[in-house]
Amino acid sequence: MANVSKMQRFPILRLPILAIDEVLITMNPFELINFSMCNPTTKCIAKLFFRKKRGFEILLGNSSTLSIAILGSQKRIWKYHIINDESAEIPESIYEVAIRYSENVFEEWKFLLEYLDDLMNFKAINDFYFDLDDFPDLNQPVIECIKTWNKPVKCEPTIINVPFGIAITRNDGKVGRMFLETFGNRLFLVFMVF
Amino acid sequence: MSVENAPVVDVDEAAIPVEKKMYYRFESNDKKEFRVSELAIQQSETLNRLVEAMGYTSEDVENKPAIAIENIDGKTLKLVFQWCEHHKGEAIPVDDGSVPKIVEIPEFDAKLMDIDNGLLFKLIWAADYLNIVQLLNVSCKKVANMAQGKTPAQLRRVYLLPSDEEDEAAKRAAQEAQDPRAREVEEEFEERKRQGGNSFF
């Protein structure tokens, strides 16, 4: 056993493997993700942990803010909001929330999504809430990003529900274009305003 | 005979055989001895199996030497047995697979673990070695709580984690310390590659 008689801090990596696992399993996803970001060793440990504990799922959204949420057991949710304005109001939430500031919210969202996927190896997108009006400039990049990510979407994405593809003029005068698009292994009808 | 007509008999309570509680004796690596009840020992899978395998009677417990626990010191073992005595008879928790696992630290455990991190570290090692599931759960939860609201930089300080650069430097130092000749060969190989040689030999 290590000699740690006078320490003020806690050398977590010198614990037995089972105990490290026990520490990690009681941490919430925000804490686990921060732990993984400490150094390459902790990232490796966190990755191994997530390979064993497959209970987490991912939810994506662009309503009010670009967000990535992680769903744990008993429907508990931890949600990242990515914003570029520190004074912006974050919508009230029943979830545990963390804010990430970035000048380029899309790049930050994409970086976080790729990082979390590498770390947690999600098999599917559990839910995808897509609001066309909130970030019209980002609709196309977000769709492209999810397309290249190539994960199935487990729940129906909240995209405009129109039965057949036609051009539609909205009441604000903008014209939307409808097209078929694949997300993962499913086909969706998408309505976008450019 | 009806109950009302039954003769009243004075009972000598001292004469009734009382089931005697068995207390096992354990010795830490610094020769401190502890007496622990049979029921408390059941919290530790390791010790429980050990005493079952030994099959000690009450006389054996008194006459034979205390069971030595070689790799745990007296201070740590005292905490472990205090915890076991307080939680004796409680069911051993079973992992329900939930993530994150919800672990509440009871008041008694919180007071028991109001110790410096060095002793907490030894307590976790002891709980792991003795396979005391719930003690491992609560002690590890206390370590996990240290991460609450911390950034990666703060976590590096709390958990004594080297940064990327320090980690890399430590790996390099370890490699060099392990086999200086291997390093020389590697450098020679790189040099030859730069000079355009196809073969090292």
From TrEMBL, chain A:
InterPro entries: F-box_dom. Residues 12-48 form the F-box domain. This is F-box domain-containing protein. It comes from Caenorhabditis brenneri.
From TrEMBL, chain B:
Pfam families: Skp1 (PF01466), Skp1_POZ (PF03931). Belongs to the SKP1 family. It comes from Caenorhabditis brenneri. This is Skp1-related protein. PANTHER family: SKP1. Keywords: Ubl conjugation pathway. Probable essential component of SCF (SKP1-CUL1-F-box protein) E3 ubiquitin-protein ligase complexes, which mediate the ubiquitination and subsequent proteasomal degradation of target proteins. Regulates cell proliferation during embryonic and larval development. InterPro entries: SKP1, SKP1-like, SKP1-like_dim_sf, SKP1/BTB/POZ_sf, Skp1_comp_dimer, Skp1_comp_POZ. Residues 166-201 are annotated as: Disordered. Residues 134-178 form the SKP1 component dimerisation domain. Residues 26-88 form the SKP1 component POZ domain. Residues 169-194 have a biased composition (Basic and acidic residues). Pathway: Protein modification; protein ubiquitination. CDD domains: BTB_POZ_SKP1. GO terms for biological process: protein ubiquitination; ubiquitin-dependent protein catabolic process.
